[in-house]
Design goal:
Strand content of chain A: under 5%
Order of helices and strands of chain A: HHHHHHH
Distance between the termini of chain B: 56 Å
Structural class of chain B: mainly alpha
Largest sheet of chain B: none
Radius of gyration of chain A: 21 Å
Strand content of chain B: under 5%
Oligomer: heterodimer
Shape of chain A: extended
Largest interface: A-B, 97 and 84 residues
Number of helices of chain B: 4
Order of helices and strands of chain B: HHHH
Number of strands of chain A: 0
Largest sheet of chain A: none
Structural class of chain A: mainly alpha
C-alpha cells in the first residue's frame, strides 16, 4: 500500500462523493462548488493515467471555465429573483424511473465487466510506461498536438467551428431584449 | 496496485456515469440537469483516457516499434477526450444561455413550470 495507492483511492472517493453531492444537493450553489471539486479530482485521475496535458486542460476548461460559468449563472438567476434552492417535488413514477434506469445500467455493466476477460488489458503492457518515445516526441502534449494536426485534423476543425457557432449562439441567446 | 489496473478506472467511470444519469433523470432544475450532464461527460472522458493508457500501441513507424526502439502511448483516447471537453464547454455555454433567456421570461428555472410546449 504505497502512497500512490492511497492518493489514488482518495481521488476516486472524492470524485464519486462529490458527484453524489452534486446530484442530491438542494442548494444549486453548493452543487456547483462540489461539481468543481469533482472536476479537480477527475483531473488528478488523469494524472494517474499519464495524461498530463489533459490534466491541465481539465483544470483550465472544466474547473476554470465550465464550473465558474455554472456558478455565475446560478448567481445571476438568483439575482433576477428566482429560486436558487430547488424545491423538489418528486413524483413517484419519476423516482422509480430514475432508480430503475440506474439499476438497469448497473446490472448490464456489471455483467459485462464480470464476463469479460480483462487479462491482456489489466496491466500496462511491457515496454510502455514512462518511456514513451516516438521519433523524439517524448511527451504527451507533443503526441496529442501531432495527432490533432495529422490524423485527427477533421474533428479538430469541426470542433473549432462548433466553438464559433456556440459562441455566437450563446451571446445572441443571452442578450437582453430591446424592450428592457 | 489499484492505479495500474484498467478495471479500476472503468468502475470509477461507471459509478460516476450512474450518478450523473440518476441526477439527469431526477432533478427538476435546468441548471442541475446541466451539471448532471457534465458528470456524464466526465465519466466518459475517464473511460476514454483509461483505454488510451492501457491499450496496445499503434505505431506510425513500424520499423522503430518492431525493432523496439520506439514505443509510445496511443493517444487516440486522449484526443477524443479533448474533443469531448471542447464540445462540453460549447454545450454548457449554449445551455446556460438558454436557461438565462427562459429565466428572463418566466422567473423560474424549474422544468415543471416551463411547459409552454406541453400538449
Amino acid at each position: 500500500m504505497t502512497l500512490r495507492d492511497v492518493v489514488f483511492m482518495i481521488l476516486a472517493a472524492v470524485t464519486i462523493f462529490s458527484g453524489w453531492v452534486v446530484v442530491t444537493e438542494r442548494s444549486l450553489f453548493r452543487a456547483g462548488l462540489f461539481l468543481a471539486l469533482c472536476f479537480g479530482a477527475v483531473a488528478g485521475l488523469y494524472l494517474f493515467l499519464a495524461a498530463e496535458f489533459l490534466f491541465v486542460v481539465q483544470i483550465l476548461v472544466y474547473v476554470g471555465a465550465i464550473a465558474i460559468l455554472i456558478l455565475f449563472v446560478v448567481m445571476f438567476t438568483r439575482h433576477l429573483g428566482g429560486a436558487q434552492v430547488e424545491r423538489q417535488r418528486h413524483s413517484w413514477p419519476q423516482t422509480i424511473l430514475g432508480f430503475a434506469a440506474v439499476l438497469a445500467f448497473g446490472l448490464i455493466a456489471w455483467s459485462i465487466l464480470s464476463g469479460a476477460d480483462w487479462g491482456p488489458l489489466r496491466e500496462v503492457p511491457p515496454g510502455l510506461g514512462d518511456q514513451a518515445t516516438m521519433a523524439g516526441l517524448a511527451d504527451n502534449a507533443a503526441l496529442i498536438g501531432k495527432s490533432l494536426l495529422t490524423a485527427y485534423v477533421l474533428p479538430f476543425e469541426i470542433a473549432s467551428l462548433v466553438l464559433v457557432v456556440a459562441l455566437i449562439g450563446a451571446v445572441y441567446l443571452a442578450k437582453p431584449d430591446k424592450r428592457q | 496496485m489499484l492505479f495500474d489496473r484498467l478495471d479500476a478506472y472503468i468502475w470509477i467511470s461507471l459509478i460516476l456515469f450512474c450518478i450523473g444519469l440518476f441526477g439527469l433523470l431526477t432533478r427538476r432544475n435546468a441548471i442541475a440537469i446541466l451539471m448532471s450532464i457534465e458528470l456524464l461527460l466526465n465519466a466518459v472522458c475517464i473511460n476514454l483516457i483509461a483505454f488510451s493508457r492501457f491499450i496496445r500501441p499503434l505505431s506510425w513507424d513500424w520499423g522503430a516499434v518492431a525493432s523496439g526502439q520506439a514505443a509510445y502511448h496511443d493517444v487516440t483516447g486522449q484526443v477524443f477526450a479533448i474533443i469531448v471537453i471542447t464540445l462540453a464547454a460549447a454545450e454548457v455555454a449554449v445551455g446556460l444561455a438558454i436557461v438565462v433567456a427562459v429565466f428572463r421570461q418566466k422567473q423560474t428555472a424549474n422544468l415543471d413550470q416551463i411547459n409552454l410546449l406541453k400538449w
